[in-house]
Amino acid sequence: MDMKTNNQETLIDNFNRVVDYVRISVTDRCDFRCVYCMDDQVEKFVPRAQLLTLEEIARIAKAFTELGVKKIRITGGEPLIRRNIIKLFEDIGKLPGLNELVTTTNGSQLARLAQPLKDAGVKRINISLDSLDPEKFKRITRVGELNKVLAGIDAALAVGFKKIKLNAVILKNRNDDEIIDLVRFASERDMDISFIEEMPLGVIGDHDRAEAYYSSDEIKKDIEEAFTLVPTTESTGGPSKYFKVTETGTRVGFISPHSHNFCDQCNRVRLTCEGRLLLCLGQEHSVDLRKTVRAYPGDMEKLKQAIRGSMSIKPKGHEFNLTEKPIIFRHMNVTGG
Ligand code: SAM
Ligand code: SF4
Predict the structure, then answer these.
(1) Residue nearest to atom 21 of ligand 1 (CA)
(2) How far is the CA of 97 from the centre of ligand 2 (A)?
(3) Overall fold of domain 21-335
(4) Residue range 107-148, pLDDT digits in tens
(5) CB distance 77 to ligand 2 below 6 Å
(6) Taking a C-beta distance cutoff of 8 angstroms, is the pair 20, 10 a contact?
């Protein structure tokens, strides 16, 4: 279903939700192997020919902005390890009608790329950081170097990025003892921080997800041992519930797919690196945009038709259940977190 207002189309699904936010995964590859995201033996990455080219991604992004999308997040896998990725940021950054171009990264390449990203028009960066202890950091990411990420965070601050947000996935007995330190680290640098509950995306051999589950409510309780949290009504157009730390002014967000369902306000869709437009993170409903973009090169209207059509199959919500086997066999690196 679609609607025209002032010549600007709007994407609206069958539940009357306006879709104005697209998350684009530009690669399933990554220089880290986080235990909650990938199996350590993943050597089955998407073959190159099946990946959307950067030009195809830019064309799809353009179609979305012509359909009223205001915010695009570039993610992955690790988006900043894709070759020539800055060119894509530059192309998307120039699209009229787009209010916010943002990205999510593990930070490993930021020391080198923070300035080019800023120059390309990226408004905000989310950086994943689960631990401030180099050994624990390595255990969670399997191969990541904490120092490189910290240098990346410094670079992002130095080139003037504001409202940087840290993302931390908290796992019981892995990093649940670092929650307060992470809030302090964010506060000292005037950054926000969101805590994410692990989601059952893809089969992982590392740990039992139900056992490792550490709820947002527990995290909040831990933070309140050191800080005062006051609820805010602010929203960044995402599923985070935000609180303000009275002592430091930092915002702390909680992304709680298990304990708080946020589907009724869902405003987003996701494009996988293979060009599958996923209508819900926790369901398989999708439309193959790669087929359209390759069958009709240069035909923007065909692409827009496919996107408009997808709105009729956007599901009402996800059905995550930690104690059962994952019903979603895509890993987060493929889907785009
Ligand atoms: N590589 C980049 C990064 O790590 O920020 C971008 C992609 S990553 C898939 C995006 C976010 O998804 C990260 O913050 C990561 O912690 C989170 N993530 C990955 N797998 C997850 C899972 N199973 N449950 C919850 N969050 C997950
Ligand atoms: Fe890579 Fe990000 Fe997944 Fe970690 S969470 S393995 S950094 S894609």
Answers:
(1) 37
(2) 30
(3) TIM Barrel (3.20.20)
(4) 999 999 999 999 999 999 999 999 999 999 999 999 999 999
(5) yes
(6) yes
